Amino acid sequence: MNPDNLTHISTQLESPNARDRMLALASLRKVPAVDAVPLIKKVLDDENLPIRSMAIFALGIKPTEECYPILVRLLETDPDYGIRADAAGALGYLEDGRAFEPLVRAFYEDTQWLVRFSAAVSLGNLKNPQAYDVLIKALDSEEVVLQQAAISALGEIKATAAIDKLLNFVQSDDWLVRQRLAEALGHLPGSKTTSALQYMAKDSDAQVAEAARISLERLQEQASQTPSS
């Protein structure tokens, strides 16, 4: 990228005007990670929380060797729970396998549901089967959003052992739980899954029904591509 453009962005990031700093961050989308990350770091401790949040997200989609330790530090030590949640989410975008342990710790130890929610979602993004026990625990949470995150993540890690547990949510009162379930079952082939999806395809909520139909089509397509023994 043109060095003059980078200098301009760097100057904007030091502007006393929050809007200028926000626009400068947005302009880094087209900048290579190696050039963008040093500039993103300039506003990681910004007084404006939305700017900090945006900078943390940017680290997740501009991976360099610096990003992982920065995000883990923020997840584990930042006093603002929103920032910790942002860091957990960015670690999922980073898709760095080393994030598994910090995310598990955050799920078990952080007292804020938003951080635990982001950690559960990111564990799904990592697609590490070892997240199974954590996600099963999340299913039993009293926080519906944690249930939603766990259902989606169990689908992401293709946790077929969780099918019976997941099917307990087929008639959940929360349509988002049912929608997440319909989407997750599309990654978990089996006769019980198919029966559940056929039932959910008639759900009173159109979005749930559509998700179930899409998952059924996915499973049917996968089955047709599997060589018969």
UniProtKB/TrEMBL annotation:
Keyword set for this entry?
A: Antenna complex, Phycobilisome
Could you tell me which SUPFAM superfamilies the record lists for this protein? ARM repeat
For the keyword Lipid metabolism, the answer is no
Q: Which Pfam families match?
A: HEAT_2
Q: What's a single GO MF annotation on this record?
A: oxidoreductase activity
- Record InterPro entries: ARM-like, ARM-type_fold, PBS_lyase_HEAT
Gene Ontology cellular-component annotations: phycobilisome
Q: Which domain of life is it from?
A: Bacteria
Protein name, UniProt field? HEAT repeat domain-containing protein
According to its UniProt entry, this protein's organism is Zarconia navalis LEGE 11467
